[in-house]
Amino acid sequence: MKINSPYAQTMGFGIERDTDGRLILTMAYDDTKRGRPNFLHGGAIAGMLETIAYLTIAERLGDDDRPMIKPISVTVTFLRGGRDKMTYARATIERLGRRIVNIEAMAWQDDPDTPIASAQMNVMLDRG
Amino acid sequence: MFNPADQKFDPHMLITMMSKNGHNALIGVEYHAHGDDWCELKLPYNAQLASDATTGIMASGPILTMMDMVTSMSIWLRAGKFQPQATLDLRVDYLRPATPGNTIIGHGECYALTRSIAFIRGFAHDGDPDRPLAHVAGTYMFTAGA
To answer: Quick check: B61 and A44 CB within 8 A?
Structure first.
């Protein structure tokens, strides 16, 4: 998954850095992200969490190591309803192995201390 | 908007209505089939939803969106009525990538229901149900009166 992937472009994802230089994925609210009235669709939130996980892994690996990054499993926990406003997501690598990466991602709107969702993800690095 | 009056829950009508706008419209989910405690949706292939323009393989996000919606439907079918609910958690196991060009079918089933919690499972395939792309399991909470 790249930030210029068709899915990421269709979703209108953007990239920012926080003050620590960490990668932040952004998504502006519009009707194409809506589930029930005035709330984000859980699938759009989950799509953000997966995408920031892939981008964070790709950045850690660097330009010289470009394996296929394949999802194995993801568990998304929905903590609060996502409202009709800007959403942010970031990911933290828990363990980067040769073949398996364990990574955690979270999404928030107003304040990173009140996340709207989190995800635990296991990813395979396939070097052919 | 859907009127949750005393009429029997009609997934075909609700999905058709819910897919006219919002995120479901963006990914293009359509009704496929349903039973007493299960529902199926279909997601026609769309290159605009690929994870990589070169391979054309569908991203996992749209599949997760469809599975969230189809498992929601299965709860309303088992309960026999529409009631507001929120996803607590959803786990997806990605067994294999979807074949580019194939329509993806999502099957969701509500296998247990309490007064406040619904338990769901489901799977997605792209033509052969015996070769699933993904398995899901999750829980929902009814939000009315919460």
So the answer is: yes
Assessment of whether the complete model's pTM goes beyond 0.90: yes
- Closest partner residue to B64 (CB to CB) among A2, A36, A46 is A46
> Does any CB of chain A come closer than 8 Å to the CB of residue B79?
no
**pLDDT single digits (tens) A18-38:** 999 999 999 999 999 999 888
Contact criterion met (CB < 8 Å) for B23 and A73: no
b/e string for B22-60 if b means 16 or more Cβ within 10 A?
Answer: bbbebbbbebbebeebbbbbbbebeeebbbbeeeeebbb
pLDDT above 80 for A104: yes
Sequence-distant (≥ 6) Cβ neighbours of residue B21 within 8 angstroms: A31, A34
For residues A76 and B61, the answer to whether their CB atoms sit within 8 Å is no
Q: ipTM of the predicted structure? A: 0.93
How close, in Å, is residue B35 to chain A by CA atoms?
24
CA separation for the pair B42, A27 (Å, rounded): 26
- Give whole-number Cα distances, A99 to A30, A54, A122, B63, B116, in Å: 37, 14, 10, 24, 40
Mutate to test the interface with A, among B94, B95, B121, B133 (most CBs of A within 10 A): B94
- 3-state SS, chain B, equals CCCCCCCCCCHHHHHHHHCCCHHHHHHCCEEEEECCCEEEEEECCCHHHECCCCCCCECHHHHHHHHHHHHHHHHHHHHCCCCCEEEEEEEEEECCCCCCCCCEEEEEEEEEECCCEEEEEEEEECCCCCCCCEEEEEEEEECCCC
Q: Which pLDDT tens digit goes with each residue over B86-107?
A: 999 999 999 999 999 999 999 9
